[in-house]
Amino acid sequence: MTKQPTIGESLRSQGISRREFMKFCTTAASLMAISPALIPQLAKALENTPRQSVIWLSFQECTGCTESLTRSHAPNLESLIFNTISLDYHHTLQAASGEAAELARAEAMKANNGKYLLVVDGSIPLANPGYSTIAGMSNKDILLEVAQGAKAVIAVGTCAAFGGLPKAAPNPTGAVAVQDLITDKPIVNVPGCPPIPIVISSVIAHYVTFGVLPQLDGLKRPLSFFGQNIHDRCYRRPFYERGWFAESFDDEGAKQGWCLYKLGCKGPVTYNACAIFKWNDAVSFPIEAGHGCLGCSEPDFWDAGGFYQALSVPLTGTATAVSYAMVGGAALGVVGGLLNRQKKSEAKQHHEVVSIADLKRT
Amino acid sequence: MNYTEFLLWVRGPAFHFATAILVLGLTLRFLEMLFLGSPRQYAAVRSNGIAGGIRTVISRFAPPEPGVFQRSWFIIVAGYLFHLGFFISFFLFAPHIILLKSLLGVSWPGLPAPVINIITIISLFAMITLLINRWYYPVLRFLSDFEDYLSWTLAFLPLFTGYLAFHHIWLPYPLMLALHILSVEILMIVLPFTKLIHTFTFIIARWTNGARAAQKGVQV
Ligand code: SF4
Ligand code: SF4
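Above: inputs. Below: predicted complex with iron/sulfur cluster.
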């Protein structure tokens, strides 16, 4: 096995200038909320670090997450990130196929045992191992095998992080998230359907630079990207405050850019960086394009009521509950009422007639 | 259970359950009241009582005589502020209107969020002072039982959690929102079986009293 080139060597061999490299370091630092004073140190660390070995496993997924990561304009942060890692195994991006591909994975696992980074997209079916296999191995087996020698695991996309679409009710494949199976390794969830490219790459960059995972929230999401609420950062918020809501996608309110709450926007319960970094090279994001947030970076967002149903509307089933309750209440009410009547008439029958004379006796 | 699952649970099964209990309880209680029937009228009927009923429903919004207000002005003012505030923040906050429309099919305009915000603060403040007042006066304290404190808590929590959720204070919004909805669901479940049922019965009770008195020829 040849020695891995350092990141600096690799960048130079690709003709990336020092200037571009420093620009990358500055952007990465600001994204990861690192003080500008530390940029030279960051640059030095990156320059001299061997490229991080990364094994990327794809399970029940749509490749949207990989699309998101690769569909960005070059040269940019994302493409630079690919130079800071050694992507040793990735179905969509690797040139090798068949046995050669599996061999590359085995070699990388052996050479970097205990040090490689495992990135996963897609959920894992447990109902039947045959639902999704790679080279004859079930998703669960391959995940457990690769995770064993990994230093840390990054679950990219809502499917890997929380189960995502495959797990949506009635969850036909018995899909679970990575964190449901791997409990003894540090895990970072980078949810989104798909996640914002810059978020995926920055988390990898953070790990490459510092050797540790970034600070996480309660759902194991990097706080620097998932600490902000879409609704809190939404430019339509003043309309929400005023109570000016679009009632349909083409009414006057929609044209005026009013709040999309009534059209089902899930921004208030969604933590993600869309409203800050936006999409397609910071051109726009769904709410800016006139569509409510779907809440794609949150667990079970597929089952959180209809996408076009307002957040404050209860999930379906109220009408049935009410009709049963009315029947039950009526039956109980009639029985209770009759019992009360009976009690009343019994009491009446036992009434003693009291006269003034009786009262005087005592 | 993560906060999204909790939120989905309160928006789904828990809400259906609470609504069912509310409807069941109200149907049961109203039927029981109906079955009680009305007492025999011994006096000659002077009027159909409709005017008297309506008059009483309205007149009891005001304290009966000046002396009462002077003696208990604090309770009356704070009580009004709380009740009105609760009513307004419940019926005139946009997300609530959307909820009620989905359940009842009717809708009405709401108030801007900052206005609701101020009204909620006033309500909360009024409720806290009413509670202090209850503790402060020995007679009131003596007369208060568990049900009074329970009613106070169940009315306070929806306002309080709603305020915290709206401002994204303390807990992540989805969790706070779930707690807010849950607090309302507890209120819905307990309401028909406690004195909180007055939210539904106060008009009927006033009307019945007023109408019966008018039928007997009592001036109301
Ligand atoms: S559009 Fe969505 S995120 Fe923006 S203010 Fe309205 S509800 Fe909040
Ligand atoms: S705006 Fe909401 S639904 Fe859209 S990508 Fe961002 S988090 Fe996902």
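Residues A 192, 230, 270, 272, 274, 285-286, 293-297 surround iron/sulfur cluster (ligand 2) (CB under 6 Å).
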